[in-house]
Amino acid sequence: MKNVIVLIGAGQIGQAIARRVSVGKLVLLADNRQENLDSAAKTLRDAGYDVSTTVLDVSSHDAVTSLAERASGLGEVTGLIHAAGVSPSQAPIDTILKVDLYGTAVVLEEFGNVIAAGGSGVVVASQSGHRLPALSAEVNQLLATTPVEELLALPMLQSAQIKDTLHAYQLSKRGNVLRVMAEAVRWGKRGARINAISPGIVITPLANDELNGPRGAGYRNMLEKSPVGRAGTPDEVASVAALLMGPDGGFITGSDFLMDGGVTASYWFGELAPAREV
Fold first, then answer.
1. What is the CATH number of the domain that holds 84?
2. What is the pLDDT of residue 146?
3. 173 belongs to the catalytic site
4. Of residues 42, 173, 189, 225, which has the active-site annotation?
5. Which of 62, 65, 128, 275 is the most buried (most CB within 10 A)?
6. Mean pLDDT (whole number) for 118-127
7. What's the number of domains the chain is made of?
8. Set 49, 102, 169, 267: catalytic member
9. At what angle do helices 165-188 and 137-145 cross, to 10 degrees?
């Protein structure tokens, strides 16, 4: 049996990471849409990768458990790439929390139960998680360690406490990073590592839709006023993921790598800074 790399989310970033870390391994590709699976699988197979596919609702605990069981039945699970999620313009608040926050927590838990010794994983979070002011130590602890089936019942995640879909997304992505830190301790007991990457605007079909949609002016302004002055590419994210998942990243776990061309730096200390009370 081959070593197995599990890719959840068939988008451009996930595929780019898979290409970097899956040579000679079986890619178990999961996504919530069959057409996405078919397209991504064809692209990877045409490039010489061995791919198996399955439809997955990442917000279903039972479905994620079944995926982990299937993966471990195919071989040693040596890698996890979790790149599934919905954006603030794609879904309402409750869906964002269930997919991006709860779904990620479930994936980390279930794959932390089957990851092989020497294995590693990455969670694709977002620069948006770095836009929130610092949370209290108590809230950090709750987001990081609350049992998954109790997570969405936390007081700070109730509708009265969340302003809009962007706020829900930011909380979810901050929660992802905190969850990765906590899970790194548990994964370490199996001899495995887990990290997060928080990309900024990366050019994909979805990003192009956003850049040309109703929020496009804001996105373009963000890029123009960032230190690097451009968007990123999936391959740039994949380069960081390959470091984190490979032997050169062996001393890195429980970390979050912000790679956004300096947008967050400009948001807090530069031209993108909103007016703040003194």
1. 3.40.50.720
2. 98
3. yes
4. 173
5. 128
6. 98
7. 1
8. 169
9. 70
